[in-house]
Amino acid sequence: MADILPLDQADLSGSDDFYRDFTTLTRAVAGIDRAYQLGRANADTFIPKFRKALALFNKKYKDISLALRRTPSSAELRISLLGEQSLQSLFANSASRIRGLSAVGLKKFNEVAVNEQDRLEKTLSRMGKKVYASYIDPDTAAASNIMIEKHGKHFLVVCDHRDFLRKNSPEFRLCAYYALRRPYNRKTDILGPASSFGFGESIVSERRPILDELDPFSRVY
Hints:
By secondary structure, the chain is of the alpha+beta class. It is built from 7 helices and 7 strands, in the order ααββαββαβββααα. Helix 1 packs antiparallel against helix 2.
C-alpha cells in the first residue's frame, strides 16, 4: 500500500461518479428503512434488488464496502473502509487529513482538542479499536462527528448518513477517499439497478420531490 497517497494528496477526480452512486444507495436504504417503519407489506420485495446494487457497488470501488443490515422492522446501511493495517494508519492517512478536525477521542467525542498537542499525541498513541473524530468546517461552522471502529480487517464508519449529501463534508470525503484512491470501474452502472425499485430517482433528478412516506431524512442514524 506504499504507493497509495494520503487523503490530502490523492486524486479524487472521480468524486462526481462516486457521489451519484453512493448517495443513491444511501437514500435507497433510508427509503427501505422507512417502508419497514411504516409497516408496508411490500418492504421485503426491495431487498433482493438492493443487494444486487450493493454487490455492483462493491465490485466497482475497491477500498470501501457496503452491506445491508436488516431486522424485522428496520434496514441499515453499514459502511466499511478497507486496505489499512491498523486504525492508527487509517487515521494518519485519512481522518486526520480532513480539513476542520477539531477534536479526537477514544471513548467519546471531543475528549481532546487538536490544539492540545501533548494530550493529543498521548491519546493517539493509545488508539485501539475505536476513534471518535470531530470536525468544524472553517467556512460554514458546520459540525460533524465520525466514529470509526475496527472489525477484523475492515473499519466500520458510524455517522449521520444525511451528511453524505454534502460533498465537502468530512463524512463524504472520508468515504470518497477510500473509494477512489485506487482505480475504479467507470463502466459499472449502479444508478440503473438502484433506480429500478423507485428510490434512486430523487437523487439523480431534482424535478420530483421525495414522497413523504419514503422520506429518507425522517430518521436520524
